[in-house]
Amino acid sequence: MSTKSAARPGGRSARVQQAVHEAVRGLDGELARERLTVPLIAERAGVTPSTIYRRWGCLRELLADVAAQRLQPEAPLAQTGSLAGDLFAWTQEYMEEMTSTPGRQVLADVLGSTHQERRTRCWQWQRDQLSLLLERAASRGEAPLPGVEQLLDGVMAPLIYRLSYAPHTLDEARLRHWIRQTLDEAVAAPSAARGET
Fold this sequence. Notes:
By secondary structure, the chain is mainly alpha-helical.
């Protein structure tokens, strides 16, 4: 794994990253993707192409880095009063964003990266968000609750799979089904452990 992409830049490095990311986002909205080049991005960002190549290696990895940053959660999580409601609100927003044309491109860019760190960063953000939803549910006294891994496997895994290969098959009913099924399994697991049927 490249240590360059994993580093948390500060000072001048942070300013360069911000300028280059802004240049990518600006040009990506103005030009067809196939017309996007490192020299164009460098000119817009006010840096040399060699700066970009030295830091990101190639255009694909730069695009993946920008995409990974876009996937970082910004808005506060909705509070609906239940874990099921919170999960639905969060995954519905994610689904709507990722089925849009820019969203599909962002997902493709991240998944196309050869650097595991970028994909891991997105995975960790999802884990953090799910952990927060579970903490809220626990503070409300909801029980039993699934674990983060159960939510990743039961809700996020099928969502990401369909977003990647068949976004046209996604709808709210399918999201609700995955959430309900995962929460029902969490209820069934303690009962099975106690020998209840």
